[in-house]
Amino acid sequence: MEVKVKEANGLENKVHQITRKLVALFKEPDQKDALLKITGDDEKSLDNLVKASAATLLIEDFAIEYPGENSLEKERNMYRELKTLFGDVISDGIRVRENIMAFYSNIFDLMLNTPKIKLMERENKILDTFEDDLIEIFRLFPEYYFFDFLEGLVDIGNSGDSTGDEGSDQDLLSFNKFRQDIIEFLRIDDLKDLEVLYIPIKKLTEKIYAQALERMPISSRGVDAFYRSNILKNEIVTIFKESMEENRTLDEIESMVLERIKEGLQDEAESSANRVTYFLQYLLDLEFSSLMELLERNGIQNIPLFTSALTMDYREIKEELDEKEIKLKDINRLKAYDGGLASFVRLSLEDFKEELRSRQVDEEDLAGYTVEAMIKDHLSDIENPALEFVATDMNLSQGELVEMLLMEVNIKDFL
After folding, report:
1. What local confidence, expressed as pLDDT, does residue 178 receive?
2. At what angle do helices 2-27 and 46-56 cross, to 10 degrees?
3. Taking the model in full, what pTM does it have?
4. DSSP tag of 117
C-alpha cells in the first residue's frame, strides 16, 4: 500500500508540475503574441488560449512529433486537434463541476436542515437528481468528462487488486484502469449499455451517495467546516463561469479567486485556529497529516500564529511601518538573531566585562558598561570600549550595531 501511495503522490506531483508549466506559459508576457499566432482567426477566449498554451507545451517541452513544416505550424495543428478532441474544456469543466457542487450542497441540506420525517423523501429526491446528472454528463459530454466526474466521487474496490510492482501501480492510476473498474463494478459489457440500462446507473448513484455520506465528518464542527468550504468552492466555480462570459484575463481571474480564498480564510480566522484547520482540510480535500505537511512546506509551523496573521489589516501595518521608517530589509537583518539582538549584545558585553575583571577592574567601574550607555555614547560621538568590543565580536561596525539595536526597539514597540 505504501508503494501505491508513493506512486500516487509521484503522479500527482507530475500533474502539478505540468499544470504550473502550462499556467506559467500562459501568463508569460513574451508568449502572448506567440499564442495569438497559434489561435489564428479564432476568438481569443480563455479556453482557446489555454489550448494554444497546451499545444506549445506539448511541442516544445515534451518534444512530441507532429505534422508541420516548422514549430508554429506544428503548434497550430496540435491546437486544432486539441479543439476537436476536447471542445470547450473550461466551460464544459465548469458545468460538470457545478453538478458535483450541487450534489454536495443537497447532502448538506439533508444533514443540516431536513426534519427526520422528511429524510427519506429528501434522500430519494437527491438520488433522482443525481441519476439525471449522471445520464446528462454521459450523453452530452465526451467520455473522459464522465470518468473525471466519477473519479472524485467514488472509490471502486477493484482498484485495490494490484501486484504492487511499478507497472501495476502506474496502471492502477490510469484512466483506462479506472474506466475498466467502473464497467466491471456495474457488470456491463460496454459503457454504451448505460444509455439503455437503468439498473447500472441506479447502482452507481447509490454507491456514490453512500461513500459521500461516509466521507462526511462525524463532529458538528467538521460538518460545518465541510459545508462552508463547499460554499467557497461553489463561489470559485461561479467566478470562473462569469469570467468566461465576460472574457476576463487569467490574471484577473487569479486575482479574484485568491482574494475570495483570502476572505474565506479571514472569516474562519475570526473564530479560531481550529476552524481554519478544519476549513483548509476540506477545502483542499486533504487528510489532517497531509495538510500539516503542506503548511510546513510553505513555512507555516504555528497554526495559532498563522490564524492571528490572517486577521491583521496589512495595509494599516504597512502604513505604520512606513511611518516608523522600518523597512523589510531591516526586519530580515534582525531575523538572524531570532528577534533577540539585545540578548546577543548582552552576552558579548558580559564577555567584555569578564575580560576587564581578569585585569582587576573594579565592579563599580564595570557597572557603567551597559547597552543603553553604548547607544548613548555612540549618538554623542563619545568613544566606548565596550561598543568597540561587542561590534567586533559580532562582526559589525559600531554604527551598524547601534542602528540595529534602535531598529529592534522600534519594531518591538510597533508589535
Report:
1. 79
2. 110
3. 0.62
4. G
DSSP helix/strand/coil, 377: helix
C-beta separation of 341 from 408 below 8 A: yes
Q: What is the pLDDT of residue 105?
A: 87
Which of 261, 184, 295, 277 is closest to 222 using CA atoms? 277
Residue matched to cell numbers 564577555: 351
From 309, 327, 214, 328, select the one nearest 266 (Cα to Cα).
309
User: CA-CA distance, 282 to 287, in Å (whole number)?
Assistant: 8
Q: What is the mean pLDDT of the chain?
A: 80
Q: Residues for the chain: how many in total?
A: 415
Choose among 108, 101, 130: nearest CA to 233: 101
> Higher model confidence: residue 15 or residue 324?
324
pLDDT, residue 161, reads: 45
Q: Residue 64: which pLDDT band, with cuts at 50, 70 and 90?
A: confident
Distances (CA, A) of 221 to 72, 272, 274: 54, 12, 9
Pick from 238, 223, 229: which is nearest to 110 by CA? 223
Q: Show the cell assigned to 112.
A: 443540516
Q: Grid coordinates representing 377? A: 555614547
Q: Are 77 and 68 in contact (CB under 8 A)?
A: yes
d(CA 218, CA 235): 25
Q: Which residue bears the cell 489532517?
A: 288
What is the pLDDT at residue 24?
67
Instruction: Give the Cα separation of 57 and 38 in Å (integer).
Output: 12
Residue listed under C-alpha cell 508569460? 28
DSSP per residue, 152-192? TT---GGGG----SHHHHHHHTSHHHHHHHHHHHHT-SSGG
Computed on alpha carbons and rounded to an integer, the radius of gyration of the chain in Å comes to 31
**Structural domain boundaries of the chain?**
2-87, 91-305, 319-414
